[in-house]
Amino acid sequence: MYEFKDEFERKEKNIRYTYIYFIFAVLINTFIDIFDLGIEKVSGVRIVISLLFFGVILYFGLRRKFWAEVMIKFSVWLNIILLFLIITVKILGL
After folding, report:
1. Is 4 helix (H, G, I), strand (E, B) or coil?
2. What is the structure's pLDDT at 48?
3. Can you tell me the distance from the alpha carbon of 36 to that of 16, in angstroms, rounded to the nearest whole number?
4. Does residue 38 have a pLDDT over 80?
5. Mean pLDDT across the chain, nearest whole number?
6. d(C-alpha 27, C-alpha 40), whole Å
7. 52 pLDDT band (50/70/90 cuts)?
8. What is the DSSP string of 14-68?
9. Nearest 5°: phi and psi at 72?
10. CA angle, 87 as apex, 72 and 82 as ends, to 5°?
11. How far apart are CA 16 and CA 20, in angstroms?
């Protein structure tokens, strides 16, 4: 189906923002993995494997593979929901 120029630009803008949010989510998850207070030893293998996994997903997402875009959107929305849950728990003191 054909799209108008403004519709295409809006979709591209949304996709770019999704990739930026995904990169921020990866950085935050890596930061949490490195500075996890419950573990005395940092698992370097876990960090490297997760960064490779997220890198592969981002690579295929930039190549416009449908399954990678779905995984990126799912990851972004999951991190947003978890952020709201964490904030709610911290505010309510549960």
Report:
1. coil
2. 86
3. 30
4. no
5. 85
6. 21
7. very high
8. HHHHHHHHHHHHHHHHHHHHHT-TT-SS--HHHHHHHHHHHHHHHHHHHTT-HHH
9. -65, -45
10. 25
11. 6
CA 79/CA 31 separation, integer angstroms: 14
**How much is the pLDDT for 63?**
92
Q: How far apart are CA 80 and CA 18, in angstroms?
A: 12
Return the number of other C-beta atoms located less than 10 Å from residue 90's C-beta: 9
Q: Is the pTM of this model over 0.85?
A: no
Q: N- to C-terminal Cα distance for the chain?
A: 50
Separation between Cα atoms, residue 76 and residue 93, nearest integer Å: 26
